[in-house]
Structure prediction request, 440 residues.
Amino acid sequence: MTEPQISVGIMSAPEISFSLFDSYSFDGITLEKGDYSAKISTGKIDFNGALYDELDLQTDDIHNSSFELKDAVIGINFHWERKEDQRFQGNLKLIVENEMITAVNVVSLEDYLISVISSEMSATSSEELLKSHAVISRSWLLAQIDKNKSLETSDNKYQTSFEDGNEIMRWWDREDHVNFDVCADDHCQRYQGITKQSTPLVTEVINETNGQVLVYEGAICDTRFYKCCGGFMETFENVWEPVPHPYLIGKADSKNITLNTPDLTNEEEAVDWIKSSPVAFCNTKDEQVLKQVLNDYDQETSDFFRWTVSYTQKELAELIHKRSGIDYGQIIEIIPIERGTSGRIIRLKIIGTERVMTIGKELEIRRTLSESHLYSSAFVVETSEEDEEGIPGKFTLYGAGWGHGVGLCQIGAAMMADKGYKYEDILGHYFPGAKLEKRY
Prediction:
């Protein structure tokens, strides 16, 4: 296997402005350095006075030539969403998608990883943390490409939701990207090109781990990651499709084997756990370690191991209606029906004066109960200020962790590296049973 080139969907808009910092060519036409723009017109791309189905701008030097996209959106639907100009190495392809123009960057996998490592966390992170992330980012991407190929040849229809009149079970993965391998945002992996300042250390760890992936029984592992597990990791099938991954299991984020491990699928034990502050690698306020994992906009969030959110009755009822499209009336009760191995809620019943529904999985719950996303679905609900009919006036959510909890906990991994663990040990902790293997 040789190092692959991958395609990354960066942004979609009715009009895209970009700058070329080197000469590019398409269809025998050479474009010199300069500023350009393309807009959608009657289902085609209007560029330099002509209409195209797509533009495939290629360079002779994919590792060094670069271009800049104006007003790319980062943090889509999250609380840090914003626009910024972003610069990328490699080729630029413009395609028509959903009556918009989508900009796609075609880049070598290892160049892509240098950017991902610097975008997902600080480029000044510790060497062992960066090595760990290089391996899992590479593995995850190759696993997704393999998965897409298998879905294309499968006779079975791939589903990401099951619904009836009383229950909605829905999950989001990345199989909806049909025109490129991955997107550039948190939906897949943060990729901000060479906009973020990298360091010689990032390049060094990418080179040292070049081609290394995690494998399980010969297949490249689907190595998920997130910010903070809250002390306990979640099982894959509780978050995404019901297919067990033996290396993505629920376990404590601790090396203390004498730790009294709770059963967080049990409501009473989950409540006690979430409202406590257990020993865990990711239970830290060490600013120097956190700065390795949290970029500037991530640091706008200070409470993530344990957090609290409160809503009035009016705020919550309007929020749920807006986010779900379902009018529950006044909200009487929010009841966890099923929890996963980390205490994250998989199925949640919402009881309103007009409607009763059960929703899941975890991201559906997080999206329904927040203007952007709740930090996680590991939470406990307490009500107060009931009126004479017993309808609460206030709802308080006490929560644990930041993200889905499956696979590598970035803050936990940063603490492990700080404590002297090598990247092989960090990967072994978060992906038990998986093996390191060099594929190219």
The mean pLDDT is 91. The longest strand covers residues 5-13. The chain has nine helices and 26 strands. The CA atoms of residues 117 and 311 lie 36 Å apart.
